[in-house]
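Please decode residue identities from the backbone states below.
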């Protein structure tokens, strides 16, 4: 097929005009356009008084494609082959079924690829299946009763299940298309294949995940929930198996470790088993909430509220005078701020949207980069301790019952402890306690946040409005630990057969990139072994 880019339709133009615009680009008759599929759709709102949808499409015509391409027309090229191709099986016979620890995006797609290739993986997930998990999460969000093993971070689907299901990634890898296609096949909206900023929504994502699980099982895979790995068995620098909390020993020469960024007990166990770990940079900060109408008006001007546009989003960055990055992350249009603790006595926030994105507030993380030099220790787990100190302090500042400490932006910038919020009602489920967030963070984070607020307000007018709400603490932006692996084989540099994968292992940053990484690790097993 032929790929054509930079086809524009005005926001009020009928989509039925697209074939005519395709024909005009190719300098052919509209009747010669047999079919087309949208590869990418984005919104161009750069110019006041004008908003366009910009398309890249793959086209089939009744004419000779070679002759059309020979014209060397602007924005016209041969469409690449997007089909996923599994590698050929290796030459060593597989003795034991491969094991995957964790059933978030990396674990899900590693298991799916192995199952589709006939390797019948065994998946061990410490949390509950998604239906049971929803009940546990609801109990925490509504009553403040936390299940440390099944919550917004642990359980089927991983953390992304309760964080909007955003699928944007800057990773250029065709495996990402495989991830999106499998999500659509399991019931996700088809537009995620082409939208520039796709999302599923946590309400839809739950059923999508269940259908992928059912596919893995139908292909011979096995998934065990409420199964926590407590130790790893090694011999001569190679993995030989693992132990679970029930005392069961499971033999395995291949383990994909896809535990997520909050499996702190697993990191400790790996350190005891002398698996090479290193502290890595991440970011910490707050959730910031604005009226969604403010974001819509800033991004879409007079077109704000147009039914074709939906809730607007943003992504903002600033380099502070200290050299630290200050940026927004995990932006949730029309979303809510949610409790995301995974351990008793610690307070963690995150953001989430349902598919409709029709809430009154917009929220995103507003975070500051931190590095191992900030952690006060040379331990590979020093970043974990840095996180825990902030989360414990936030828990105490919130009153010790999972209410979150919160503050108006105007008061934060001026160092005032306010007794109430302003016009913007915080969306955090368990309620907030007015606090002075200057007392939560060390000075270098406070200084960067304040500088960032002022600078980002110049990019998005109203970002630093007095009544915008800051809620603490956003600390689980990415893993504070990297499980060091060989870049060629994706195996642990210290333990053969152990494949650290995804966000928790320090090699991904979102649903799609984690899924891609899980696929890569599965492919390494396939390339080495046969069944």
């Amino acid at each position: 097929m032929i790929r054509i880019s930079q086809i524009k339709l005005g926001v009020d133009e009928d989509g039925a005009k697209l074939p005519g615009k395709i024909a005009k680009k190719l300098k052919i008759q509209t009747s010669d356009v047999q079919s087309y599929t949208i590869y990418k759709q984005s919104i161009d709102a750069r110019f006041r008084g004008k908003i366009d949808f910009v398309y890249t499409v793959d086209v089939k015509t009744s004419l000779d494609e070679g002759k059309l391409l020979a014209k060397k027309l602007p924005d016209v090229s041969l469409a690449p082959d997007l089909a996923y191709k599994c590698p050929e099986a290796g030459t060593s016979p597989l003795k034991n079924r491969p094991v995957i620890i964790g059933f978030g995006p990396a674990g899900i797609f590693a298991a799916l690829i192995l199952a589709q290739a006939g390797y019948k993986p065994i998946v061990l997930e410490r949390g509950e299946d998604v239906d049971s998990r929803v009940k546990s999460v609801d109990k925490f969000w509504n009553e403040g009763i936390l299940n440390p093993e099944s919550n917004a971070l642990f359980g089927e689907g991983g953390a992304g299940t309760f964080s909007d299901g955003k699928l944007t990634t800057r990773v250029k890898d065709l495996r990402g298309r495989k991830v999106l296609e499998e999500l659509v096949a399991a019931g996700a909206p088809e537009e995620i294949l082409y939208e520039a900023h796709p999302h599923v929504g946590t309400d839809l994502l739950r059923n999508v995940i269940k259908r992928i699980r059912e596919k893995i099982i139908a292909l011979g895979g096995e998934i065990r929930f409420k199964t926590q790995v407590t130790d790893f068995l090694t011999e001569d620098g190679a993995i030989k198996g693992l132990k679970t909390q029930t005392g069961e020993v499971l033999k395995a020469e291949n383990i994909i470790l896809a535990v997520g960024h909050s499996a702190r007990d697993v990191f400790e166990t790996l350190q005891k088993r002398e698996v090479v770990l290193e502290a890595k940079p991440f970011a910490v900060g707050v959730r910031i909430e604005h009226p969604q109408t403010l974001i819509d008006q800033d991004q879409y001007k007079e077109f704000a509220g147009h039914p074709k546009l939906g809730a607007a989003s943003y992504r903002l960055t600033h380099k502070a005078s200290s050299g630290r990055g200050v940026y927004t992350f995990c932006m949730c249009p029309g979303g809510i701020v949610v409790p995301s603790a995974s351990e008793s006595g610690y307070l963690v926030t995150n953001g989430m949207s349902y598919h409709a994105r029709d809430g009154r507030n917009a929220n995103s993380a507003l975070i500051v980069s931190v590095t191992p030099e900030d952690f006060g220790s040379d331990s590979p787990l020093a970043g974990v301790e840095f996180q825990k100190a902030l989360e414990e302090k936030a828990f105490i500042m919130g009153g010790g019952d999972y209410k979150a400490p919160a503050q108006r932006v105007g008061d934060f910038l001026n160092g005032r402890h306010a007794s109430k919020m302003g016009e913007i009602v915080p969306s955090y489920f368990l309620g907030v306690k007015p606090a002075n967030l200057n007392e939560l963070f060390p000075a270098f984070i406070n200084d960067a946040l304040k500088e960032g607020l002022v600078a980002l307000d110049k990019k998005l007018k109203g970002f630093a409005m007095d009544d915008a709400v800051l809620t603490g603490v956003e600390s689980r932006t990415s893993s504070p630990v990297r499980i060091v692996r060989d870049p060629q084989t994706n195996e642990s540099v210290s333990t053969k057969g152990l494949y650290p994968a995804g966000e928790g292992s320090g090699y991904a940053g979102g649903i799609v990139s984690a899924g891609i990484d899980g696929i890569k690790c599965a492919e390494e097993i396939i390339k080495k072994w046969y069944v």
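Observation: The chain has a mean pLDDT of 95.
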